[in-house]
Each structure stands twice: as C-alpha cells, then as structure tokens.
From TrEMBL:
Short name of any one Pfam family annotated for the protein: Glycos_transf_1
Residue ranges annotated for the Glycosyl transferase family domain, each copy included: 176-327
Tagged with keyword Thylakoid: no
Signal peptide positions on this chain: none
Organism, as annotated: hydrocarbon metagenome
Lineage: unclassified sequences, metagenomes, ecological metagenomes
Keyword tags: Transferase
Record-given protein name: Glycosyltransferase
Length: 348
C-alpha cells in the first residue's frame, strides 16, 4: 500500500507537530508500508503568502507517481489538507488559528493588515470547508481541536490520541524542588505566568524552562524585572536524554498555554509520574488533568498558579498525584498500532 504523508514545515522550526508526523512516518515504515513523506515550507506573512502556499498544496497531483497509483494520503494541518486525493484522510493538528479562535486578539497576525487580512481570513474559511469536506475521514489530535472544528466549520472530527515521542523511556527518579516547563517559548505558551508565580512561592522553589522561541528575550527580562532571575533556569534546546532527566526529577510540571491544541507535555509529565498544573483556559491539557486528583486546574493568573504550587509542595502531594496521572495515561491505549489501524481503515 502506497501512502503519502503530507506535512507543513516552517523551515528551521521543529516542535510537537513536526515530531508528531515524523513519528507517524517512522511507524508506518516499521509496519512495512510504502510511504513517502511530503513536506512543503509554509510562510504566513504577508497574508497573501498564506493563499500562495495553500495553492501549492491544491495544485499537487498525488493520485499517482511514475505510473504507480498512490493509494492514500494523510494530511495534518493547514494548508496540507487542501491536497486533492480520493482517499484523503486528515489527522488534524490544528487549523490556521488566527482565522478562528485567535481572530481579533493580540495574537491575530492578520489583524494588522486591515482589509487584506480580512479578505485572507475569509479565503481561509472557504479553503478549509472545501478541503476538509473532501476527506474520507477526519481525525483530530484532541477533543479540543475537534470542538473548534465543529464550532467554527460545523465539520465533525474524531479525537485520536497517540503516544508522545519518547514513549517507553519516561521514568520517575525523585521530586526535587523545581517546577519544569518544557515548551516552545512563545506568547501563546505563557511562560510569563510561571515566572510571575515564583514571586508568590517559597524562595526555595525553582523554575526550569526548556525550549527556545521568539519570546525568549522577553521572558528573560521579565524574570529580572520580577526579581526571580536567580531562581529561573533558561535551558534552551535540550537533548532527549536531558528532557527525560528533567521530567524524571521535577516536583511538578506547570503547563499553562492559552487554548493548547493538545500538547505532549501533559502526557509526558504523567508518564514520568509528575502532577500537572494547568489553567482553566488551557484547552488540550484539560482533557487529561483532573483537578485535585492528578494535578490542579488554576485560574490563568500568577497568584492562582502559585497557590496550586504551594499546595503540592506544602502538603507533599507530588508523588500521590503523579501516580494518579500515570494511572490515567496508562489506561488510554496510547499505541501506534491503534493509531495506524484507525488512519488506514477509511482507505480500504
């Protein structure tokens, strides 16, 4: 069976979405499928580039190659799912969010372009409705993404959870006196809330932030401004071994993004037997975090997050809640066998 895995790639950027489809490609190969990985660069500025890059996907002919039929395609996020194929399955990571839930917010990168931005936003709606409705089946990487798809496009998607990249390697060694926040450093990830919360926590509690991104200089300066720079470790990019070690020895993981699609962080933390503190508006993590059971759901404020951190440390709850998180994720049937069976069924 010949399968084309279609992925959007912002050059020199690698995060959860990229690891997600890298792993899908590798797992299909392991099972003997004839797979081609098709990546096309994506640029979203100025807004007309969004339309240009969408057209690249739309103009591709993946029905056959070198006289051989391509049996199916699996696409992930905008605009890859605009590709035409009679056996198109979409595993939706997210749409172009500034056209939807982030529209007319401070994170709306179309808004500064005025009328042009609005024209492109309308085109994105139309392209999504066309490309997604062509699919034989739409899976999503979380219930949150499925909810957005129905809310804005009235298109149904079925959540399909998958194992995080280092499944089988996560472990727990200790509960040291630090909070861990691994993620791309970007405004939407809200590392600023974790930094500010330290002002309201015991002075022995540290914060370790792993990751790089456009917001890094801002959060570094924020730590100094808040007087906690001596308690925050900016680790930058970390290797897989370092990541596993950081999870293994953290007291807790704080993961407080704004309306996250899904995020590996919560699952990785639970597999490392660590409780997770997230926020009531954090989206994807709320599908896994049960308040006061395997973590805490805080209000999106430094004071509320700090209160939950203090509860964990002062009441010795890290190990108990971490174990509860591990039991939760262990019951979820996170296997690539299940994922691939689901993805290929509609192509049969």
């Amino acid at each position: 069976m010949k399968i084309a895995v279609c992925a959007v790639q912002v050059p020199f950027v690698k995060g959860g979405a990229e690891y997600h489809f890298d792993n899908l490609y590798a797992e299909l190969l392991k099972r003997g499928y004839d797979v081609e990985y098709i990546k096309i660069p994506f640029k979203w500025y100025p807004p007309e580039e969004i339309v240009n890059h969408a057209l690249i996907w739309r103009l591709l002919d993946l029905s056959e190659s070198n006289g051989m039929k391509i049996d199916g395609v699996i696409a992930q996020k905008f605009p890859s799912y605009l590709v035409r194929h009679p056996n198109k399955v979409v595993w939706l990571l997210h749409q172009h969010r500034t056209a939807y839930d982030l529209a007319h917010t401070e994170m709306d990168d179309l808004l500064p372009y005025g009328k042009l931005g609005e024209v492109v936003r309308q085109k994105i709606y139309k392209m999504d409705n066309l490309g997604l409705n062509e699919a034989r089946k739409i899976y999503t990487n979380s219930g949150n993404v499925a909810g957005r798809l129905w809310r804005y496009n009235k298109i149904a998607g079925e959540p399909l959870y998958h194992p995080p990249p280092l499944m089988g390697q996560y472990r727990c060694e200790s509960y040291d006196d630090y909070i861990f926040y691994p993620s791309r450093v970007d405004a939407i990830k809200r590392q600023d809330l974790a930094i500010k919360c330290l002002q309201h926590c015991n002075s022995n509690i540290r914060l370790k932030i792993a990751g790089t991104g456009p917001h890094l200089d801002y959060v570094r300066s924020l730590a100094k401004e808040c007087g906690v720079d001596d308690r925050v470790d900016f680790l930058g990019f970390v290797s897989e071994k370092e990541l596993l070690d950081l999870y293994a020895n953290a007291a807790t993981v704080v993961y407080v993004p704004l309306d996250e699609d899904m995020g590996y962080v919560t699952l990785e933390a639970f597999l490392s037997k660590k409780p997770v503190i997230t926020c009531a508006d954090s989206g994807g993590p709320l599908e896994f975090v049960e308040d006061s059971v395997n973590g805490f759901i805080a209000a999106p404020s430094p004071e509320s997050i700090a209160e939950k951190v203090q509860q964990l440390f002062e009441n010795g709850l890290c190990e108990k809640m971490g174990q509860n998180g591990y039991r939760k994720v262990s019951s979820m049937n996170l296997s690539w066998d299940n994922v691939i069976k689901k993805l290929l069924e509609p192509m049969q």
